[in-house]
Write a structure and sequence with these properties.
single chain; about 475 residues; mainly alpha; two-stranded antiparallel ribbon; 2 strands; about 60% helix; globular; disordered N terminus
Length: about 475
């Protein structure tokens, strides 16, 4: 497979719309304290969640830690990624504290070369999905508060020792989720005019200046392609002396089929760790939803009898190993073998997987969006019990006395068609990506290769629709939909 130094069409074409050109929003984003202004409100909310998680009622529907973390935060994150981009990383409150701590701790070490990949992040991401089910984090305000505290401590500890944004790039599970999801977002931080970049000798966007730091994710704008590893931190925008970096619109998912070299990342098809991250991201969406429907209890009972154990950790360990390791390996290797057989090629199967696994990103994100948006829309009023507790403590009128807010904003009958639509859009995106990759990879025999990966995408979409058609636990809320 060949590659090029620049992404055709993405880096050289003039963008149609740039957020920085809008009068009000552009002026705000150009303000050097814009990110702090976004981080401070979320930092205050995080402090509230920590306090309520430790000292508030330990009933999940009445506690800010659980309601905001597992219903509102996740729903808003996927919706923001769908309509805009990586807005949470841009507004991340953990980085606010980390930046403040760097006034006292100046990191001098580079992140170990052996760990400059996503393997640790994959382990943490998969481990978190497992711990979420094992410890029922969704109904435990105390543990949820501890997770937030540990996030603050982990971010400060890592980035007080290692230069750059090592925590974001190599460890943060929320960051990895956002990075992959933003591959299908409609906005991208990118160069406006390539000619200006090619003539620039100071390279402040990556090296920084005396007043503004450069990109801490090591994404050199002239060679940057797409949203992978980009936190939308705006540092490159503020650092560029030529005003040549913008936040522009693009075709969602357009970077998934490119073989270009990407600054700070390399080439997708040479990164087995990125391929594994995509697999865990995509199949994790199915497993996370499966853990919340009634058939999972039948599976758990069967495993309990088969293994002669009542240990939830062992039973869930088997389920998660099957869902995050065995199933992805079987389906990916099977699909790669079929596509190779149909095309009669001698390319190693692992190389085929590394190239084509990105087909699953749109349908995987579609599943995450359908699932989290369902809980967000049907449990939106889950914040009201907290408001009720606070208002009653102040002697004010009960806002829930009428019982109006006891009803879901989105009844289940209306939510399901929306879920199917979102998953369907994800599947269509996956088909388009499969088509583009196959046409670039095997122009003369693209149809068999496209067909094999298209079938896998449709299979995952079908599994996702079946999962969302099942009665799902309304975790952390008092509304049953």
């Amino acid at each position: 497979m060949g590659s090029s130094n620049h992404a055709p069409g993405l880096q050289t074409r003039q963008a149609r719309f740039d957020l920085l050109d809008s009068r009000m929003l552009g002026r705000f984003l150009r303000w050097r304290s814009a990110r702090i202004a976004l981080q401070v409100p979320l930092f205050i909310v995080a402090l509230l969640m920590i306090y309520d998680g430790f000292f508030g009622p330990q009933s999940a529907p009445e506690n800010a830690a659980t309601v905001l973390s597992w219903i509102h935060f996740r729903g808003l994150v996927v919706l923001a990624l769908l309509v805009a981009g990586n807005l949470f990383c841009m507004s991340c409150p953990f980085m606010l504290v980390r930046n403040w701590s760097r006034q006292f701790f100046q990191p001098h070490r580079s992140w170990p070369r052996l760990l400059r990949n996503k393997w640790l992040a994959i382990a943490i991401f998969g481990g978190f999905l497992f711990a979420y089910e094992l410890f029922d984090l969704w109904k435990t305000p105390w543990w949820t508060a501890w997770i937030i505290v540990l996030y603050f401590l982990g971010c400060v500890a890592v980035d007080s020792v290692f230069r750059g944004a090592s925590f974001c790039k190599y460890l943060c599970p929320v960051g990895q989720f956002n990075f992959l999801s933003s591959l299908v977002s409609p906005l991208e931080v990118k160069v406006r005019r390539m000619g200006i970049c090619e003539s620039c000798r100071t390279r402040e966007c990556i090296q920084g200046s005396a007043e503004v730091r450069g990109c801490e994710l090591w994404l050199f704008q002239r060679l940057k392609v797409g949203n992978m590893d980009c936190t939308f931190c705006l540092d490159c925008i503020h650092a560029c002396p030529h005003d040549n970096v913008g936040i522009t619109t693009r075709i969602p998912g357009s970077e998934l089929s490119l073989e270009s070299f990407r600054s700070g990342i390399g080439q997708f098809f040479r990164r087995s760790d990125l391929a594994a991250l995509v697999a865990v991201f995509s199949f994790g969406a199915l497993l996370n939803a499966f853990s919340m429907i009634s058939p999972v209890h039948t599976v758990e009972d069967g495993l309990s009898s088969l293994l002669d154990t009542s240990s939830e950790a062992v039973i869930l360990g088997v389920i998660f190993t099957a869902g995050l390791v065995v199933e992805p390996l079987l389906l990916l290797f099977g699909t790669a073998w079929i596509s190779r057989r149909w095309n009669r090629r001698k390319q190693p199967i692992l190389n085929i997987i590394n190239r084509y696994v990105y087909v699953l990103v749109p349908v995987g994100f579609g599943m995450w969006t359908a699932h989290y948006a369902f809980h967000f829309l049907t449990g939106l009023w889950g914040l009201l019990p907290i408001v009720r507790r606070l208002t009653l403590s102040l002697g004010l009128m009960d806002p829930l006395s009428s019982g109006f807010f006891m009803r879901p904003l989105f009844p289940r009958l209306l939510a399901f068609p929306l879920e199917v639509g979102v998953i369907g859009l994800g599947a269509m995106g996956s088909l388009l990506v499969a088509y583009e990759i196959a046409r670039n990879d095997v122009p003369d025999k693209w149809w068999p290769t496209f067909t094999s990966w298209a079938l896998l995408s449709l299979l995952m979409a079908g599994m996702a629709i079946w999962l969302m058609s099942q009665p799902m636990e309304m975790r952390g809320t008092m509304w049953m939909g």
